[in-house]
Design brief:
The chain is mainly alpha-helical. The protein has helices at 3-25, 32-59. This is DUF465 domain-containing protein.
Length: 60
């Protein structure tokens, strides 16, 4: 997978996780541990996106 394709995939995953977090937070009694886990996953994805973007910038 090229870096551009990987970055696009990560952006899609990041948006998907964000939408899931928002959906869960709208419901009273939502599983806070699950939401916290999703937030951690979202952060990991974001960090990978930043790393790829920095790698692309330094390669130019």
């Amino acid at each position: 997978m090229t870096d551009d394709a990987r970055l696009a995939s990560l952006r899609t995953r990041h948006a998907s996780i964000d939408a899931e977090i928002e959906r869960l937070q709208k419901h009273p009694g939502a599983d806070e541990l699950h939401i916290a886990d999703l937030k951690k996953q979202k952060l990991v994805v974001k960090e990978e996106m930043v790393r790829l973007e920095q790698d692309e910038a330094s390669a130019d």
